[in-house]
Amino acid sequence: xxxxxxxxxxxxxxxxCPLVESARSALKNSLAQTHIDAIVQELVGDHSxxxxxxxxxxxxxxxxxxxNQASCRLDxxxxxxxxxxxxx
Length: 88
Hints:
Strand 4 and strand 5 form a beta hairpin. This protein has helices at 20-34, 79-87; strands at residues 9-13, 40-44, 48-49, 51-54, 57-58, 71-72. The chain has two helices and six strands. By secondary structure, the chain is α/β, with parallel strands linked by helices. The two termini are 18 Å apart. Helix 1 (20-34) crosses helix 2. 24% of the residues are buried. It is globular, with a radius of gyration of 12 Å. The chain has one domain (9-87). Strands 2-1-4-5 form a four-stranded mixed β-sheet, with helices on one face. The protein has a two-stranded parallel sheet with strand order 3-6.
């Protein structure tokens, strides 16, 4: 697999988020499709959950709100959104 060392990937969630596994799976599938071998940093805390950031950019295109707010997201990141962001 190709590795992009400069690529920063983060999966943000709140504790016990019931939707984080779906986001994690979509991210894993997208990385496999693009042959990118990257380290995914998983952060659990006060976040909109689940959120996938690639180089600090929310893959859904949703602007990040200032400060941390624990909340459940209704706009889950899709594989298509992740792939578009990974491919730049």
